[in-house]
Design a protein that fits this description.
This protein has 18 helices and no strands. The C terminus is likely disordered. Keywords: Membrane, Transmembrane, Transmembrane helix.
Length: 394
């Protein structure tokens, strides 16, 4: 039986999460270039983004069954290399149809990689003597920061979208080659289905997860266009907004366990939601570009630890088996981050892109409003657990 608790397998898992975040972030600075190249309005662009989401969610639903039969390793490799192969086509697709097909394929590779790497991460964590999942997901944020930074820098020096994506693809191929021999060859899959429809209290958790991930997806897909159309930055620097968001999200995730242990889940949801909403206010109302850009930092910091609270509650609720609850929330969350941003384009077509972002801020109000409901049960037990964790950490 293959040992799962090894530095090599941890490295491979981290590289898989890094590639997923990196690939997704590489697309963000390309959105304004794609819109200009195709000459489409916000509504058509929203339909194109929907192709990415549909491809991703369809692949997610299939990957659970494929991983049970073949293990997660071949799916991780295929998904990572597929992202590297398809990314340059997003920079040269010359018609809405070809870009839609490319985005659907890109989304399918991303969706399959997302599910397979999480299955792999669960198996690796089982053999470890300490939690690893938060660190793995932090690598996704680091990948987002590196990908956005790299493509933005290349575009800033006039390298062009095609050259920027080719170099980015080379980085992903190298990462996957390093990970390939270190991934687990066999992964035990759970007998439970990959996805079930959430119900009751879990439905509330899933809805809040979808909203939070929707905000992240909107920042990814629309922040560059919002900044450029409002004259905050030029097109070559459009990725700066998502880069700042990714930095704040990464810092928040790395510090999240310690902060939660100190102030508790309810405060994380309440104040995290309020900070994120304040970020939208700064972004949309500030007359100064520097202050407006700081809004991305506040959004990232505020939203970074809301989802971990939701997953924690999914693991302790009694409405349905915890494994099925976590799987349902995961799929709903990814559906929010990938399908949801398409709705931003539809709304923007009628009330403008700033109006769509105000709508996101309104949706995010659900997090502080529902903080008491989500954390109402087992508050005393959780406080004791947080104090115990803090004492052990000290």
């Amino acid at each position: 039986m293959q040992t799962t608790d090894r530095p090599e397998t941890r490295l491979a898992t981290r590289l898989a999460f890094l590639v997923a975040g990196f690939a997704l972030a590489c697309w963000a600075p390309l959105v304004p270039f794609a819109k200009e190249r195709l000459g489409v309005d916000d509504g058509v662009l929203g339909m194109l983004l929907l192709c990415l989401g549909l491809g991703s969610v369809a692949a997610m639903l299939a990957t659970g069954m494929l991983s049970a039969r073949y293990g997660s390793k071949p799916i991780i490799i295929a998904g990572g290399l597929g992202l590297a192969a398809i990314l340059p086509t997003l920079a040269v697709a010359s018609t809405p149809f070809t870009l839609g097909i490319a985005l659907a394929a890109f989304g399918a590779c991303l969706g399959s990689l997302d599910v397979a790497m999480n299955i792999h991460a669960v198996e690796v964590e089982k053999g470890a003597d300490r939690p690893l999942m938060s660190g793995f997901h932090a690598l996704f944020s680091i990948g987002g920061f590196i990908g956005s930074l790299l493509v933005t820098l290349l575009l800033s020096v006039k390298a062009g979208p095609l050259v920027a994506t080719l170099l980015s693809s080379a980085v992903m191929v190298i990462a996957m080659i390093i990970a390939w021999p270190r991934l687990l060859r066999t992964v035990q899959a759970e007998d439970a289905p990959f996805f079930v429809m959430p119900r009751g209290f879990v439905l509330l958790l899933a809805a809040l997860a979808a909203i939070t991930f929707l905000v992240e997806g909107a920042i990814l897909d629309w922040s560059a266009l919002l900044l450029t159309t409002q004259g905050r930055v030029d097109a070559s620097h459009g990725g700066l907004g998502y880069m700042l968001f990714a930095i704040a999200m990464t810092i928040g995730r790395f510090a999240g366990d310690a902060v939660t242990a100190r102030i508790g889940d309810r405060a994380i949801m309440l104040w995290g939601g309020l900070v994120a909403i304040a970020g939208f206010v700064a972004l949309l109302l500030s007359p100064f570009s520097i202050l407006a850009m700081s809004g991305f930092l506040l959004i990232g910091l505020g939203a970074s630890n809301i989802v971990p609270v939701l997953f924690r509650k999914a693991g302790t609720q009694t409405v349905m088996p915890s494994g099925l609850a976590v799987a349902a929330i995961t799929t709903c969350g990814y559906a929010g981050v990938l399908i949801g941003p398409a709705s931003v384009g539809f709304v923007a077509d009628h009330i403008g892109l700033p109006g769509s972002f105000w709508g996101l801020a309104l949706l995010l109000c659900a997090a502080p409003l529902c903080a008491g409901i989500v954390t109402r049960t087992q508050d005393r037990e959780e406080t004791d657990a947080h104090r115990s964790y803090s004492s052990m950490d000290t």
